[in-house]
Amino acid sequence: MEQHQRAYNFNAGPAALPLEVLERAQSEFIDFRGHGMSIMEMSHRGAVYEQVHNEAKQLLKELFHIPDGYDVLFLQGGASTQFAMVPMNLLAAGKVGAYVHTGSWASKAIKEAELIGETRVIASTEADRFMRMPAPEEIVVPANAAYVHLTSNETIEGTQFAAYPDTGAVPLIADMSSDILCRPVDVSKFGMIYAGAQKNLGPSGVTVVIAKEELLANSPATIPTMLRYSTHYKNNSLYNTPSSFSIYMVNLVLQWLKDRGGLAQVERDNQAKAELLYGVIDSSGDFYRGCAARDSRSMMNVTFRLTDEELEKTFIKEAGEAGFVGLKGHRSVGGLRASIYNAVPYASCEALVQFMKQFQQKNG
Ligand SMILES: Cc1ncc(COP(=O)(O)O)c(C=O)c1O
Fold it and tell me: The domain containing residue 332 runs over which residues?
């Protein structure tokens, strides 16, 4: 399939996957590496699948420079299940779950934690309509915190942490669903990082958890078996049937990222794409208006508005006719959003910028 037949895909998630990965999966779809069946048809207990599974873990450790003493889990239930698993496993009685409230996804994490234990919002940007991320010094860690939870990239608002707080001995837990592997991160600053795969890692159906082994090993026996980190940690994420096809796809995406030269290069490419889009917004003389505060702008989700909602509808309609997909903002906030995850090609961003300029010429 040639490149021009593929849509310009700016979906927020599930989102664009690398064409090379899709082609590789296609070539292996029916007969996986000479085994006479698809990877989907194999036992998760067999050596062939297990190699794919372990290689995916290894690749993630290598690419993200995950230090010794951490493990990687492949779970199901999406990042939304992690909103509950984090407090169920780690919020002991007498301790407080400390949350940084930065918008739509942080809010969901907080609501789940409130069902489970004592929860406190220790910093919030609600007064700024969540259009910025707090500076590290705004985040003050309570003495009795079990952990500090933050959302590294708010997918809906289009904001992203530029720098993470230092929480000392208290584990820092990050929902990185929409920006994992978009740049190098010092993983040793975190107790746990989790992410649904369907933006930067692969297809939906698997959630990656990266955590210090001490946080994974000691889950309370009072919570259901499948919701204990320790169950999955002790069984190499093979306690029950894993989402094998999704994990295989994650393996291919990680291999693709490695072949691109690793995360420093990926970050440069992402910055170049983001600069293109924010550039056309900023030079439009207020025709396009970026939603997020400049120092909190997301490299992954570019949110912007036009002066009136009717014009936004026209923009989405005409963009759709020109082959652009996924530019409508989330229904809860409206406006426009271009999600430019790792796999979105630079050429797609160039095409969008061209379209935006022409749209302004016609309507400005
Ligand atoms: C930052 C963030 N957290 C959590 C979620 C929820 O993920 P899931 O649908 O895998 O439960 C999303 C999904 O868009 C997200 O963007």
Answer: 261-363
Residue 176 CA: nearest ligand 1 atom is: 1
Q: Are residues 157 and 64 in the same domain?
A: yes
This prediction has a pTM of 0.98
57 assigned to some structural domain: yes
- Annotated catalytic residue 199: yes
Exposure of 317 in the CB half-sphere (CA atoms within 13 A):
6
**167 and 47 in a common domain:** yes
Ligand 1 center to 187 CA (angstroms)? 20
Among the listed residues 61, 71, 175, 273, the single catalytic one is 175
CATH number for the domain harbouring residue 335:
3.90.1150.10
Cβ of 177 below 6 Å from ligand 1: yes
286-320 exposure pattern, b = at least 16 Cβ within 10 A, e = fewer = ebbebbbeeebbbbbbbbbbbeeeeebeebbeebe
Residue 17 lies in a domain: no
Catalytic residue among 57, 61, 71, 105: 105
pLDDT, residue 1, reads: 42
pLDDT tens digits, residue range 109-151? Answer: 999 999 999 999 999 999 999 999 999 999 999 999 999 999 9
Using left for φ > 0, alpha for ψ between -120 and 50, and beta otherwise, residue 214 falls in alpha
